[in-house]
């Protein structure tokens, strides 16, 4: 964890609890920090699995922090306060804020200003902050990743109450490509949380064999350094290919610097600015183009027409073919939409002529009657 963060922060192993992946870590933290019926605030769009991980067994409610494309879906003070007030209107006790940094599905790192804003907010409200940093090792271009722990130390908050209210979730699933190993971790400076999470980890242990294998692998510092460096280069190359291919098809993306995916803007391909039109477009891409992408509505995005497209789970040849298919589809749908619009315009024009003729005839008949 320290190496991926450029050794700017150190981690005390006594504050670390191993879990069976980040899913288990997030759920365990919900059990530790909240009661059934309490609320946790999440910025939109967010990972769809949180609806399962945070709510199903804990009874915790999610209240969305509404972010928009107008500022690249960044968190604002007004959005945080609006979410907090919404929870209060619903008689929900807010126990904390959970963010993913880097973001899934945006593929972006949080700015220092956003992190400072979050620290100030949770300090003022006396609530917790969970920073899910499982994509921290996938940052392949600037701006660099900044961990919430780095912010706390830079602001010299070690001896304040907020120090024990900030918790980090980590996993090897993304950074090392080991999702099947189910290795996650909770890092907290609150000894009560660490003690409770340690007891609960008995229900989701990492096997001894897995721990032994990973210990041997990660102790090879030369390997880990080379792996991280090569992984960054490959991710950037693959992301560039996706963005370039989409641009050739007339599709743009949110500018990103991390993750295994891009947040793709297909709003111009919608038949209308509705989530129904988004689902209609998604079905055509899945069933006709045979590409598996995620609609923004599944990530609770408030704006129709955004999609998450993964680029790291396929070969370059497969990605090239996918872009060819998508380009052909966009060309077809653009012509189809134009033809549909032309027909609408033609009908409107003919209807106008018909109404005019009807009105003129009615006027003529009245004039004849008066004579």
Topology:
Layout: E1 16-19, H1 21-33, E2 39-43, H2 50-53, E3 61-65, H3 77-89, E4 94-100, H4 112-125, E5 128-132, H5 148-154, E6 166-171, E7 184-188, H6 191-200, H7 208-218, H8 221-248, E8 252-253, E9 261-265, H9 275-289, E10 294-295, E11 306-310, H10 316-370
Parallel strand pairs: 2-3, 2-4, 4-5, 5-6
Antiparallel strand pairs: 1-7, 6-7, 8-9, 9-11, 10-11
Description:
The protein has 2 domains: 13-218, Aspartate Aminotransferase, domain 2, CATH 3.40.640; 222-332, Aspartate Aminotransferase, domain 1 (Alpha-Beta Complex), CATH 3.90.1150.10. 46% of the residues lie in helices and 14% in strands. The protein has 10 helices and 11 strands. It has helices at residues 21-33, 50-53, 77-89, 112-125, 148-154, 191-200, 208-218, 221-248, 275-289, 316-370, and strands spanning 16-19, 39-43, 61-65, 94-100, 128-132, 166-171, 184-188, 252-253, 261-265, 294-295, 306-310. Strand 5 (128-132), helix 5 (148-154) and strand 6 (166-171) form a beta-alpha-beta unit. Helix 1 (21-33) packs across helix 6 (191-200) and helix 8 packs parallel to helix 10. The radius of gyration is 26 Å and the shape is globular. The N and C termini lie far apart (95 Å).
